Amino acid sequence: MAQGSLVAVGTHKGYVQIWDAAGGRKLTCLEGHSARVGALAWNGEQLSSGSRDRVILQRDVRTPPAAERRLQGHRQEVCGLKWSPDHQHLASGGNDNKLLVWNSSSLVPVQQYSDHLAAVKAIAWSPHQHGLLASGGGTADRCLRFWNTLTGQALQSTDTGSQVCNLAWSKHANELVSTHGYSQNQILVWKYPSLTQVAKLTGHSYRVLYLAVSPDGEAIVTGAGDETLRFWNLFSKTRCTKESKSVLNLFTRIR
After folding, report:
1. Where are the alpha helices (DSSP H) in the chain?
2. What is the pLDDT of residue 39?
3. Global confidence as pTM
4. Do 84 and 124 meet the contact criterion of CB atoms below 8 Å apart?
5. Over the Cα atoms of the chain, what is R_g?
6. DSSP states of 57-97 as a string?
């Protein structure tokens, strides 16, 4: 949960566990999925879960488990979920190579994007431009694509050279970070909208499946199949407010 101490965990058997992180105890276990839950996204007190059963469940953790919305639009496993910063739209990615956008009330997607040629796990809404959505494709696609969800228009795209596993925007500048799998297992930082590559970070020896941004927006942590967590001081507020400063200085802040 963005605010508060609740942590949601999706399990292989299709359960969604809600934990009190501060107290270290499990509060509840939500049923409803018939296969593994590989994608979760909080929206205030609402929790969305995506599963191998192709269903997205939207539930309010304060109400009984029966109070849920079922969103069905993907033809294969749901592997990516992200709510927009204004809490109005949910983006979902699937192993069917589709990127869908849902509003907060409809049971059918309001937009569908089919340009990716592989699974869409990496999804990120821009905090700087309303309606701007970024997505990344798997090994057979490798592309980073941008969409104007206000008009349904496809914007820029670039071939990253590797499977795109995760995406996150900087809070302080119009930049985003992508993490990758086969074949380079790298972490890339891009300027938007030019898609100039600002930095390339290496160190992981297996695909970088997990990415989280620190609350202050300056650091990221990455987790990979090499069983390591790595912390990177990536998005300095000082650097982002001094455009004249060389981007090469970014490397001096990486630990």
Report:
1. 237-241
2. 98
3. 0.90
4. no
5. 18
6. EEEETTS-TT-EEEEE--SS-EEEEEE-TTSSEEEEEETTS
Q: What is the pLDDT of residues 23-46, one digit of tens each?
A: 999 999 999 999 999 999 999 999
Q: Which residues of 202-224 are buried (b: 16+ CB within 10 A; e: fewer)?
A: eebeebbeebebeeebbbbebbb
Kindly report which listed range (46-55, 124-133, 179-188) carries the lowest average pLDDT score.
179-188
Report strand pairing: 164-169 vs 153-159.
Answer: unpaired
Give the count of beta carbons closer than 10 Å to the beta carbon of residue 117: 13
pLDDT bracket for residue 183 (50, 70, 90): confident
The 10 Å Cβ neighbour count of residue 200 is 12
Q: What is the pLDDT of residue 240?
A: 52
Distance CA(81)–CA(130), nearest Å, equals: 18
